[in-house]
Protein backbone atom coordinates (compact mmCIF):
# COMPACT_ATOMS: atom_id res chain seq x y z
CA UNK A 1 0.00 0.00 0.00
CA UNK A 2 1.33 3.38 -0.92
CA UNK A 3 1.07 6.25 1.47
CA UNK A 4 1.89 8.78 -1.19
CA UNK A 5 -0.79 11.28 -1.96
CA UNK A 6 -2.42 11.09 1.47
CA UNK A 7 -3.43 14.66 2.03
CA UNK A 8 -2.58 16.50 5.19
CA UNK A 9 -5.77 17.85 6.68
CA UNK A 10 -6.03 21.57 6.39
CA UNK A 11 -6.77 23.70 9.42
CA UNK A 12 -10.18 25.28 9.89
CA UNK A 13 -10.62 29.06 9.97
CA UNK A 14 -8.89 30.93 12.75
CA UNK A 15 -10.45 31.13 16.19
CA UNK A 16 -13.03 28.35 16.08
CA UNK A 17 -13.24 24.69 15.20
CA UNK A 18 -15.44 23.61 12.33
CA UNK A 19 -14.58 19.98 12.89
CA UNK A 20 -15.49 19.49 16.54
CA UNK A 21 -11.98 18.18 17.06
CA UNK A 22 -10.76 17.59 20.61
CA UNK A 23 -7.34 18.98 19.65
CA UNK A 24 -6.37 21.19 16.76
CA UNK A 25 -2.80 22.27 16.25
CA UNK A 26 -2.54 24.85 13.49
CA UNK A 27 0.75 25.73 11.87
CA UNK A 28 2.86 25.48 15.02
CA UNK A 29 6.61 25.99 14.65
CA UNK A 30 9.45 25.82 17.15
CA UNK A 31 13.01 26.96 16.72
CA UNK A 32 15.83 26.16 19.17
CA UNK A 33 18.67 28.54 18.37
CA UNK A 34 19.28 27.90 14.69
CA UNK A 35 17.55 24.53 14.70
CA UNK A 36 13.98 24.35 13.47
CA UNK A 37 12.48 21.50 15.49
CA UNK A 38 8.91 22.00 14.17
CA UNK A 39 7.84 23.70 10.94
CA UNK A 40 4.22 24.74 10.57
CA UNK A 41 2.86 21.55 12.10
CA UNK A 42 -0.90 21.01 11.91
CA UNK A 43 -2.76 18.14 13.52
CA UNK A 44 -6.34 17.26 14.40
CA UNK A 45 -7.55 14.68 16.88
CA UNK A 46 -11.24 13.77 16.76
CA UNK A 47 -13.50 13.00 19.72
CA UNK A 48 -13.06 9.43 20.93
CA UNK A 49 -10.05 8.91 18.71
CA UNK A 50 -6.67 7.39 19.57
CA UNK A 51 -4.31 9.23 17.25
CA UNK A 52 -0.71 8.13 16.75
CA UNK A 53 2.16 10.59 16.40
CA UNK A 54 5.21 8.89 14.98
CA UNK A 55 8.59 9.81 13.52
CA UNK A 56 12.30 9.19 13.85
CA UNK A 57 14.28 10.21 16.92
CA UNK A 58 14.57 13.98 16.87
CA UNK A 59 11.66 14.51 14.46
CA UNK A 60 9.89 16.83 16.92
CA UNK A 61 7.25 14.67 18.67
CA UNK A 62 8.21 15.53 22.26
CA UNK A 63 8.67 19.18 21.33
CA UNK A 64 5.04 19.26 20.25
CA UNK A 65 3.93 17.49 23.46
CA UNK A 66 5.92 20.02 25.49
CA UNK A 67 4.31 22.93 23.65
CA UNK A 68 0.90 21.53 24.62
CA UNK A 69 1.74 21.76 28.33
CA UNK A 70 3.53 25.09 28.11
CA UNK A 71 6.99 23.67 28.78
CA UNK A 72 8.13 25.17 25.48
CA UNK A 73 6.81 28.40 23.95
CA UNK A 74 6.15 27.91 20.22
CA UNK A 75 7.35 30.44 17.65
CA UNK A 76 4.82 33.21 17.03
CA UNK A 77 2.05 32.46 14.56
CA UNK A 78 0.60 29.05 15.41
CA UNK A 79 -2.60 28.11 17.21
CA UNK A 80 -3.68 25.36 19.60
CA UNK A 81 -7.37 24.66 20.17
CA UNK A 82 -8.89 22.22 22.65
CA UNK A 83 -12.56 21.43 22.11
CA UNK A 84 -12.77 24.39 19.79
CA UNK A 85 -11.40 26.84 22.34
CA UNK A 86 -8.18 28.56 21.40
CA UNK A 87 -5.50 28.40 24.10
CA UNK A 88 -3.33 31.40 24.79
CA UNK A 89 0.26 30.69 23.73
CA UNK A 90 2.56 29.81 25.32
CA UNK A 91 0.13 27.41 26.93
CA UNK A 92 -0.39 28.06 30.63
CA UNK A 93 -0.41 24.72 32.47
CA UNK A 94 -3.42 25.73 34.56
CA UNK A 95 -5.49 26.54 31.46
CA UNK A 96 -4.42 23.29 29.79
CA UNK A 97 -5.57 21.35 32.86
CA UNK A 98 -8.90 23.20 33.02
CA UNK A 99 -9.52 22.43 29.33
CA UNK A 100 -8.85 18.74 29.94
CA UNK A 101 -5.42 18.53 28.31
CA UNK A 102 -3.14 16.10 30.18
CA UNK A 103 0.31 14.94 29.06
CA UNK A 104 2.49 12.06 30.25
CA UNK A 105 5.94 13.26 29.22
CA UNK A 106 8.69 10.88 28.19
CA UNK A 107 10.61 11.74 31.37
CA UNK A 108 7.37 11.01 33.32
CA UNK A 109 7.72 14.19 35.37
CA UNK A 110 7.58 12.53 38.80
CA UNK A 111 9.10 13.94 41.96
CA UNK A 112 11.43 11.26 43.31
CA UNK A 113 11.32 12.43 46.92
CA UNK A 114 7.53 12.42 47.15
CA UNK A 115 5.48 9.30 47.75
CA UNK A 116 3.24 7.67 45.16
CA UNK A 117 0.08 9.18 46.63
CA UNK A 118 1.69 12.62 46.84
CA UNK A 119 2.81 12.41 43.21
CA UNK A 120 -0.63 11.33 42.13
CA UNK A 121 -2.52 13.95 44.06
CA UNK A 122 -0.19 16.94 44.18
CA UNK A 123 -1.99 20.00 42.88
CA UNK A 124 -5.29 18.17 43.22
CA UNK A 125 -5.59 17.87 47.03
CA UNK A 126 -9.00 18.50 48.50
CA UNK A 127 -8.88 20.20 51.86
CA UNK A 128 -11.47 20.28 54.60
CA UNK A 129 -13.30 23.57 54.12
CA UNK A 130 -13.08 24.56 57.75
CA UNK A 131 -9.70 23.28 58.89
CA UNK A 132 -7.93 23.39 55.48
CA UNK A 133 -6.50 19.97 56.38
CA UNK A 134 -5.95 17.61 53.45
CA UNK A 135 -8.44 14.74 53.48
CA UNK A 136 -5.87 12.00 53.13
CA UNK A 137 -8.38 9.16 53.25
CA UNK A 138 -10.14 10.57 50.20
CA UNK A 139 -6.84 11.21 48.44
CA UNK A 140 -5.71 7.63 49.06
CA UNK A 141 -9.02 6.19 47.90
CA UNK A 142 -8.88 8.12 44.63
CA UNK A 143 -5.25 7.22 44.05
CA UNK A 144 -5.93 3.55 44.75
CA UNK A 145 -8.92 3.49 42.42
CA UNK A 146 -6.99 4.69 39.40
CA UNK A 147 -4.00 2.40 40.06
CA UNK A 148 -6.35 -0.52 40.46
CA UNK A 149 -7.90 0.21 37.08
CA UNK A 150 -4.42 0.02 35.59
CA UNK A 151 -4.11 -3.45 37.09
CA UNK A 152 -0.77 -2.68 38.69
CA UNK A 153 -1.02 -2.20 42.42
CA UNK A 154 1.69 0.21 43.58
CA UNK A 155 2.20 0.90 47.27
CA UNK A 156 0.99 4.41 47.95
CA UNK A 157 3.42 5.36 50.70
CA UNK A 158 6.64 4.40 48.93
CA UNK A 159 8.90 7.17 47.65
CA UNK A 160 8.83 7.24 43.87
CA UNK A 161 12.64 7.02 43.83
CA UNK A 162 12.29 3.44 45.08
CA UNK A 163 9.96 2.27 42.32
CA UNK A 164 10.81 0.18 39.28
CA UNK A 165 10.57 1.83 35.85
CA UNK A 166 7.30 0.05 35.20
CA UNK A 167 5.82 1.30 38.46
CA UNK A 168 7.00 4.85 37.74
CA UNK A 169 5.33 4.74 34.33
CA UNK A 170 2.16 3.40 35.91
CA UNK A 171 2.05 6.27 38.41
CA UNK A 172 2.59 8.88 35.68
CA UNK A 173 -0.09 7.33 33.47
CA UNK A 174 -2.49 7.07 36.40
CA UNK A 175 -1.92 10.72 37.21
CA UNK A 176 -2.84 11.78 33.67
CA UNK A 177 -5.83 9.46 33.40
CA UNK A 178 -7.32 10.64 36.69
CA UNK A 179 -7.31 14.16 35.21
CA UNK A 180 -9.21 13.13 32.09
CA UNK A 181 -12.69 14.62 32.09
CA UNK A 182 -15.16 12.19 30.49
CA UNK A 183 -16.28 13.40 27.09
CA UNK A 184 -13.80 16.27 26.87
CA UNK A 185 -10.22 17.10 26.11
CA UNK A 186 -7.26 14.91 25.31
CA UNK A 187 -4.54 12.87 27.01
CA UNK A 188 -1.07 12.75 25.38
CA UNK A 189 1.18 9.76 26.06
CA UNK A 190 4.79 10.44 25.01
CA UNK A 191 6.49 7.03 24.91
CA UNK A 192 4.81 6.39 28.24
CA UNK A 193 4.14 2.73 27.64
CA UNK A 194 7.78 1.91 26.86
CA UNK A 195 8.48 0.21 30.18
CA UNK A 196 5.11 -1.46 30.69
CA UNK A 197 5.08 -5.24 30.61
CA UNK A 198 2.65 -6.92 28.26
CA UNK A 199 0.18 -7.59 31.03
CA UNK A 200 0.27 -3.95 32.14
CA UNK A 201 -0.04 -2.82 28.53
CA UNK A 202 -3.26 -4.76 28.23
CA UNK A 203 -4.68 -3.05 31.31
CA UNK A 204 -3.51 0.30 30.01
CA UNK A 205 -5.28 -0.15 26.68
CA UNK A 206 -8.45 -1.49 28.33
CA UNK A 207 -8.53 1.63 30.45
CA UNK A 208 -7.70 3.89 27.52
CA UNK A 209 -10.56 2.33 25.53
CA UNK A 210 -12.90 3.22 28.42
CA UNK A 211 -11.57 6.78 28.46
CA UNK A 212 -11.95 7.34 24.71
CA UNK A 213 -15.37 5.67 24.72
CA UNK A 214 -16.58 8.73 26.66
CA UNK A 215 -15.45 10.97 23.78
CA UNK A 216 -12.15 12.08 25.30
CA UNK A 217 -9.32 11.70 22.77
CA UNK A 218 -5.76 10.38 23.07
CA UNK A 219 -2.53 11.21 21.26
CA UNK A 220 -0.09 8.31 21.42
CA UNK A 221 3.61 8.89 20.67
CA UNK A 222 5.38 5.59 20.17
CA UNK A 223 8.21 3.90 18.29
CA UNK A 224 6.43 0.55 18.46
CA UNK A 225 4.77 0.17 15.11
CA UNK A 226 2.84 -2.91 16.19
CA UNK A 227 1.37 -0.98 19.11
CA UNK A 228 0.56 2.00 16.87
CA UNK A 229 -1.24 -0.19 14.35
CA UNK A 230 -3.11 -2.05 17.04
CA UNK A 231 -4.16 0.90 19.16
CA UNK A 232 -4.64 3.92 16.94
CA UNK A 233 -7.36 4.99 14.52
CA UNK A 234 -5.14 7.39 12.58
CA UNK A 235 -1.53 8.51 12.57
CA UNK A 236 0.34 11.67 11.84
CA UNK A 237 3.95 11.28 10.76
CA UNK A 238 6.67 13.84 11.43
CA UNK A 239 9.95 13.95 9.54
CA UNK A 240 12.51 16.59 10.55
CA UNK A 241 9.80 18.68 12.16
CA UNK A 242 7.47 18.58 9.15
CA UNK A 243 4.19 16.65 8.86
CA UNK A 244 4.68 14.20 5.99
CA UNK A 245 1.44 12.29 6.60
CA UNK A 246 -1.46 13.88 8.43
CA UNK A 247 -4.36 11.97 9.98
CA UNK A 248 -3.76 8.79 8.01
CA UNK A 249 -6.25 5.98 8.88
CA UNK A 250 -4.29 2.98 10.18
CA UNK A 251 -6.81 0.31 9.17
CA UNK A 252 -5.19 -1.89 6.53
CA UNK A 253 -1.69 -0.45 6.97
CA UNK A 254 1.32 -2.64 7.73
CA UNK A 255 4.37 -1.97 9.88
CA UNK A 256 6.35 -1.52 6.68
CA UNK A 257 3.96 1.18 5.50
CA UNK A 258 4.59 3.10 8.70
CA UNK A 259 8.36 2.59 8.54
CA UNK A 260 8.39 3.87 4.98
CA UNK A 261 6.44 6.95 6.00
CA UNK A 262 8.78 7.59 8.94
CA UNK A 263 12.09 6.93 7.21
CA UNK A 264 11.26 7.81 3.64
CA UNK A 265 12.46 4.34 2.69
CA UNK A 266 11.32 0.82 3.44
CA UNK A 267 12.56 -1.57 6.07
CA UNK A 268 14.06 -3.87 3.45
CA UNK A 269 16.52 -1.14 2.52
CA UNK A 270 17.85 -0.89 6.06
CA UNK A 271 20.88 -2.99 6.95
CA UNK A 272 19.84 -6.58 7.66
CA UNK A 273 20.21 -8.29 11.02
CA UNK A 274 23.90 -9.17 11.34
CA UNK A 275 24.71 -12.85 11.19
CA UNK A 276 25.19 -14.41 14.63
CA UNK A 277 28.90 -14.77 15.24
CA UNK A 278 28.47 -17.95 17.30
CA UNK A 279 32.11 -17.42 18.06
CA UNK A 280 33.07 -17.77 21.65
CA UNK A 281 36.50 -16.60 22.64
CA UNK A 282 38.38 -16.74 25.91
CA UNK A 283 37.20 -17.84 29.34
CA UNK A 284 33.52 -17.83 30.19
CA UNK A 285 32.09 -15.31 32.62
CA UNK A 286 30.55 -17.53 35.27
CA UNK A 287 27.76 -16.75 37.70
CA UNK A 288 27.08 -19.21 40.50
CA UNK A 289 24.33 -19.47 43.09
CA UNK A 290 22.95 -15.98 42.51
CA UNK A 291 20.12 -15.04 44.88
CA UNK A 292 18.30 -11.75 45.18
CA UNK A 293 14.79 -10.58 45.95
CA UNK A 294 13.45 -12.83 43.19
CA UNK A 295 16.39 -14.74 41.78
CA UNK A 296 16.70 -18.09 43.41
CA UNK A 297 20.07 -19.73 42.97
CA UNK A 298 20.90 -18.89 39.36
CA UNK A 299 23.90 -20.39 37.56
CA UNK A 300 24.92 -18.86 34.22
CA UNK A 301 27.79 -18.94 31.79
CA UNK A 302 28.34 -16.13 29.32
CA UNK A 303 31.06 -16.28 26.75
CA UNK A 304 33.09 -13.43 25.38
CA UNK A 305 31.83 -13.01 21.82
CA UNK A 306 28.19 -13.87 22.47
CA UNK A 307 25.10 -11.85 23.29
CA UNK A 308 22.75 -13.58 25.72
CA UNK A 309 19.21 -12.36 26.37
CA UNK A 310 17.29 -12.85 29.61
CA UNK A 311 13.55 -12.35 29.67
CA UNK A 312 10.37 -13.40 31.43
CA UNK A 313 7.12 -12.17 32.88
CA UNK A 314 7.05 -9.53 35.62
CA UNK A 315 8.23 -11.17 38.83
CA UNK A 316 10.29 -13.85 37.06
CA UNK A 317 13.52 -12.21 38.23
CA UNK A 318 15.16 -11.65 34.84
CA UNK A 319 15.18 -7.88 35.35
CA UNK A 320 16.93 -8.18 38.71
CA UNK A 321 19.93 -9.81 37.06
CA UNK A 322 21.47 -6.64 35.51
CA UNK A 323 21.62 -4.86 38.84
CA UNK A 324 22.91 -7.78 40.92
CA UNK A 325 25.66 -8.58 38.41
CA UNK A 326 26.99 -5.03 38.34
CA UNK A 327 26.97 -4.05 42.01
CA UNK A 328 24.05 -1.66 41.55
CA UNK A 329 22.12 -3.71 44.12
CA UNK A 330 23.58 -6.22 46.59
CA UNK A 331 22.78 -9.87 45.99
CA UNK A 332 21.78 -12.12 48.86
CA UNK A 333 24.34 -14.61 47.72
CA UNK A 334 26.35 -15.61 44.67
CA UNK A 335 29.63 -15.21 42.85
CA UNK A 336 30.80 -13.78 39.55
CA UNK A 337 33.95 -15.19 38.03
CA UNK A 338 35.78 -13.00 35.53
CA UNK A 339 39.02 -14.51 34.34
CA UNK A 340 41.05 -15.39 37.43
CA UNK A 341 39.01 -13.20 39.75
CA UNK A 342 35.99 -14.37 41.70
CA UNK A 343 33.75 -11.62 43.09
CA UNK A 344 31.31 -12.03 45.95
CA UNK A 345 28.07 -10.51 44.58
CA UNK A 346 26.72 -9.87 48.08
CA UNK A 347 29.55 -7.34 48.52
CA UNK A 348 30.05 -6.21 44.95
CA UNK A 349 29.88 -2.45 44.45
CA UNK A 350 29.64 -0.27 41.34
CA UNK A 351 33.23 0.99 41.71
CA UNK A 352 34.61 -2.54 42.02
CA UNK A 353 32.50 -3.66 39.11
CA UNK A 354 33.77 -0.86 36.89
CA UNK A 355 37.37 -1.59 37.85
CA UNK A 356 36.75 -5.24 36.94
CA UNK A 357 35.44 -4.24 33.49
CA UNK A 358 31.73 -4.72 34.21
CA UNK A 359 29.41 -2.09 32.73
CA UNK A 360 25.68 -1.57 33.22
CA UNK A 361 23.37 0.30 30.86
CA UNK A 362 20.33 0.65 33.12
CA UNK A 363 16.72 1.17 32.28
CA UNK A 364 15.53 4.71 33.04
CA UNK A 365 18.24 6.83 31.50
CA UNK A 366 16.89 10.12 32.86
CA UNK A 367 17.33 9.30 36.51
CA UNK A 368 19.66 6.31 36.51
CA UNK A 369 21.98 6.67 33.58
CA UNK A 370 22.80 10.15 32.40
CA UNK A 371 23.83 13.52 33.76
CA UNK A 372 21.33 15.57 31.78
CA UNK A 373 23.02 18.90 32.56
CA UNK A 374 26.40 17.76 31.22
CA UNK A 375 27.50 17.61 27.61
CA UNK A 376 27.58 14.53 25.41
CA UNK A 377 31.39 14.49 25.76
CA UNK A 378 31.32 14.68 29.56
CA UNK A 379 28.74 11.91 29.79
CA UNK A 380 30.67 9.60 27.47
CA UNK A 381 33.92 10.23 29.31
CA UNK A 382 32.61 9.99 32.90
CA UNK A 383 33.22 6.26 33.48
CA UNK A 384 36.50 6.25 31.55
CA UNK A 385 37.82 9.12 33.64
CA UNK A 386 36.66 7.48 36.82
CA UNK A 387 38.18 4.10 36.09
CA UNK A 388 41.34 5.14 34.32
CA UNK A 389 42.49 8.48 35.64
CA UNK A 390 44.43 6.74 38.37
CA UNK A 391 46.39 4.81 35.76
CA UNK A 392 46.61 7.01 32.69
CA UNK A 393 47.08 10.74 32.42
CA UNK A 394 43.95 12.34 31.04
CA UNK A 395 44.75 13.15 27.48
CA UNK A 396 42.46 15.67 25.89
CA UNK A 397 42.96 14.87 22.22
CA UNK A 398 42.56 11.15 22.81
CA UNK A 399 39.35 11.86 24.68
CA UNK A 400 38.05 14.03 21.87
CA UNK A 401 38.78 11.24 19.41
CA UNK A 402 36.94 8.71 21.59
CA UNK A 403 33.86 10.89 21.89
CA UNK A 404 33.90 11.69 18.16
CA UNK A 405 34.13 8.01 17.31
CA UNK A 406 31.20 7.02 19.53
CA UNK A 407 29.01 9.90 18.42
CA UNK A 408 29.58 8.73 14.88
CA UNK A 409 29.25 5.00 15.56
CA UNK A 410 25.94 5.43 17.33
CA UNK A 411 24.77 8.16 14.97
CA UNK A 412 23.97 10.64 17.77
CA UNK A 413 22.01 13.55 16.31
CA UNK A 414 23.02 16.35 16.29
CA UNK A 415 26.60 14.97 16.18
CA UNK A 416 27.88 17.63 18.56
CA UNK A 417 29.96 16.49 21.57
CA UNK A 418 29.40 19.90 23.19
CA UNK A 419 25.59 19.56 23.17
CA UNK A 420 23.97 19.35 26.61
CA UNK A 421 22.41 15.89 26.87
CA UNK A 422 19.12 17.19 28.32
CA UNK A 423 18.56 19.03 25.06
CA UNK A 424 18.80 15.92 22.92
CA UNK A 425 15.72 13.97 21.91
CA UNK A 426 14.93 10.90 24.03
CA UNK A 427 16.27 8.39 21.52
CA UNK A 428 19.50 10.31 21.10
CA UNK A 429 19.93 10.42 24.88
CA UNK A 430 19.64 6.64 24.86
CA UNK A 431 22.43 6.45 22.26
CA UNK A 432 24.67 8.60 24.48
CA UNK A 433 23.98 6.28 27.43
CA UNK A 434 25.12 3.33 25.36
CA UNK A 435 28.16 5.19 24.07
CA UNK A 436 29.14 6.04 27.65
CA UNK A 437 29.49 2.37 28.58
CA UNK A 438 30.58 0.91 25.24
CA UNK A 439 33.47 3.40 25.24
CA UNK A 440 34.88 1.70 28.36
CA UNK A 441 35.46 -1.49 26.30
CA UNK A 442 34.01 -3.65 29.10
CA UNK A 443 34.64 -7.36 29.57
CA UNK A 444 31.04 -7.86 30.63
CA UNK A 445 28.39 -5.51 29.28
CA UNK A 446 24.96 -5.71 30.90
CA UNK A 447 22.09 -3.92 29.19
CA UNK A 448 18.54 -3.45 30.44
CA UNK A 449 15.99 -2.60 27.71
CA UNK A 450 18.72 -0.95 25.61
CA UNK A 451 16.61 0.16 22.65
CA UNK A 452 13.85 1.77 24.65
CA UNK A 453 12.53 4.92 22.95
CA UNK A 454 14.78 4.61 19.92
CA UNK A 455 13.42 4.56 16.41
CA UNK A 456 13.51 1.64 14.07
CA UNK A 457 16.66 2.82 12.25
CA UNK A 458 18.52 3.60 15.48
CA UNK A 459 17.65 0.15 16.82
CA UNK A 460 19.76 -1.34 14.08
CA UNK A 461 22.61 1.08 14.73
CA UNK A 462 22.57 0.13 18.41
CA UNK A 463 22.30 -3.55 17.51
CA UNK A 464 25.37 -3.30 15.33
CA UNK A 465 27.35 -1.49 18.05
CA UNK A 466 26.46 -4.12 20.65
CA UNK A 467 27.37 -6.97 18.34
CA UNK A 468 30.62 -5.28 17.47
CA UNK A 469 31.44 -5.10 21.19
CA UNK A 470 30.80 -8.85 21.37
CA UNK A 471 32.95 -9.46 18.30
CA UNK A 472 35.73 -7.57 20.02
CA UNK A 473 35.61 -10.00 22.94
CA UNK A 474 33.01 -8.64 25.31
CA UNK A 475 30.42 -10.93 26.94
CA UNK A 476 27.03 -9.23 26.63
CA UNK A 477 23.86 -9.80 28.65
CA UNK A 478 20.63 -8.13 27.51
CA UNK A 479 17.66 -8.10 29.88
CA UNK A 480 14.31 -7.10 28.48
CA UNK A 481 10.88 -8.05 27.26
CA UNK A 482 10.94 -6.61 23.77
CA UNK A 483 10.90 -9.67 21.56
CA UNK A 484 12.11 -7.79 18.49
CA UNK A 485 15.07 -6.36 20.38
CA UNK A 486 15.98 -9.77 21.85
CA UNK A 487 15.72 -11.48 18.48
CA UNK A 488 17.78 -8.81 16.76
CA UNK A 489 20.54 -8.72 19.36
CA UNK A 490 20.91 -12.11 20.95
CA UNK A 491 22.55 -15.40 20.05
CA UNK A 492 20.43 -17.12 22.66
CA UNK A 493 17.69 -16.11 25.06
CA UNK A 494 17.04 -17.53 28.52
CA UNK A 495 13.43 -17.37 29.64
CA UNK A 496 13.05 -16.96 33.41
CA UNK A 497 10.28 -18.32 35.57
CA UNK A 498 10.11 -18.21 39.35
CA UNK A 499 13.58 -16.78 39.74
CA UNK A 500 15.43 -19.20 37.48
CA UNK A 501 16.08 -19.81 33.78
CA UNK A 502 13.36 -22.25 32.71
CA UNK A 503 13.97 -22.48 28.98
CA UNK A 504 16.39 -21.38 26.32
CA UNK A 505 15.91 -20.24 22.74
CA UNK A 506 18.82 -20.81 20.40
CA UNK A 507 19.50 -20.71 16.68
CA UNK A 508 17.31 -18.82 14.27
CA UNK A 509 14.42 -18.01 16.63
CA UNK A 510 11.70 -15.48 15.79
CA UNK A 511 10.09 -12.70 17.86
CA UNK A 512 6.88 -14.78 18.03
CA UNK A 513 8.80 -17.66 19.55
CA UNK A 514 10.22 -15.35 22.20
CA UNK A 515 6.70 -14.19 23.12
CA UNK A 516 5.42 -17.72 23.12
CA UNK A 517 8.25 -18.85 25.38
CA UNK A 518 7.62 -16.02 27.83
CA UNK A 519 3.91 -16.65 28.04
CA UNK A 520 3.23 -20.30 27.53
CA UNK A 521 6.34 -22.07 28.59
CA UNK A 522 5.57 -24.33 25.66
CA UNK A 523 8.70 -26.12 24.54
CA UNK A 524 9.16 -25.85 20.79
CA UNK A 525 11.72 -27.54 18.64
CA UNK A 526 14.36 -24.88 19.13
CA UNK A 527 13.43 -24.44 22.74
CA UNK A 528 15.09 -26.84 25.06
CA UNK A 529 15.20 -27.19 28.79
CA UNK A 530 17.88 -24.91 30.12
CA UNK A 531 18.76 -26.87 33.20
CA UNK A 532 21.48 -27.56 34.02
CA UNK A 533 22.45 -24.12 32.64
CA UNK A 534 26.17 -24.76 32.55
CA UNK A 535 25.69 -27.33 29.82
CA UNK A 536 25.68 -24.85 26.96
CA UNK A 537 29.30 -23.89 27.18
N1 LIG B 1 15.65 22.24 24.88
C1 LIG B 1 16.18 22.04 23.67
N2 LIG B 1 17.18 22.83 23.21
C2 LIG B 1 17.72 22.63 21.98
N3 LIG B 1 17.31 21.69 21.11
C3 LIG B 1 16.31 20.88 21.51
C4 LIG B 1 15.70 21.01 22.81
N4 LIG B 1 14.74 20.06 22.92
C5 LIG B 1 14.75 19.37 21.76
N5 LIG B 1 15.69 19.86 20.92
C6 LIG B 1 15.98 19.39 19.56
O1 LIG B 1 14.77 19.41 18.81
C7 LIG B 1 14.69 18.28 17.95
C8 LIG B 1 13.39 17.54 18.21
O2 LIG B 1 13.51 16.88 19.47
P1 LIG B 1 12.30 16.04 20.11
O3 LIG B 1 12.70 15.69 21.49
O4 LIG B 1 11.04 16.78 19.92
O5 LIG B 1 12.31 14.77 19.14
P2 LIG B 1 11.41 13.44 19.25
O6 LIG B 1 10.75 13.26 17.92
O7 LIG B 1 10.54 13.49 20.43
O8 LIG B 1 12.55 12.34 19.40
P3 LIG B 1 12.61 10.97 20.26
O9 LIG B 1 11.83 9.98 19.47
O10 LIG B 1 14.06 10.65 20.25
O11 LIG B 1 12.07 11.24 21.61
C9 LIG B 1 15.95 17.48 18.20
O12 LIG B 1 16.89 17.82 17.20
C10 LIG B 1 16.43 17.93 19.56
O13 LIG B 1 17.84 17.82 19.66
Automatic annotation (TrEMBL):
- Return any one Pfam family short name: ABC_tran
Q: What is this protein called?
A: Monosaccharide ABC transporter ATP-binding protein, CUT2 family
Q: Which GO terms describe its molecular function?
A: ATP binding; ATP hydrolysis activity
| Ranges of residues in domain ABC transporter | 23-265, 279-523
PROSITE patterns referenced in this protein's UniProt entry, alphabetically: ABC_TRANSPORTER_1 (PS00211), ABC_TRANSPORTER_2 (PS50893)
State the UniProt keywords alphabetically.
Answer: ATP-binding, Cell membrane, Membrane, Nucleotide-binding, Repeat, Sugar transport, Translocase, Transport
According to the UniProt record, where is the region Disordered? Answer: 1-21
Amino acid sequence: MSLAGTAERGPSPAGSSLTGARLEVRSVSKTFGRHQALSAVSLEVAPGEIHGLIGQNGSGKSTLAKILTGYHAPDPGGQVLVDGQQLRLPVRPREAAVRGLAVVHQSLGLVDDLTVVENLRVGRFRANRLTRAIRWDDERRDAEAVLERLGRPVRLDVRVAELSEEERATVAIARALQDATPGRGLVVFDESTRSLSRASLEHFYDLLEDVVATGTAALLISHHMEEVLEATDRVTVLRDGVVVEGGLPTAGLTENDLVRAIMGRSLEQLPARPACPRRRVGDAVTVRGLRGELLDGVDLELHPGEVVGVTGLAGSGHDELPYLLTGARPARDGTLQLGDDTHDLARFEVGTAMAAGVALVPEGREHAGLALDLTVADNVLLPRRRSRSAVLPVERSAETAVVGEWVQRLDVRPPDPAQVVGKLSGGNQQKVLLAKWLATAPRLLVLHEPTQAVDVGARRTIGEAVRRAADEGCAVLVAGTDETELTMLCDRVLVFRDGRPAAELTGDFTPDEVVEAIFSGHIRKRLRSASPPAGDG
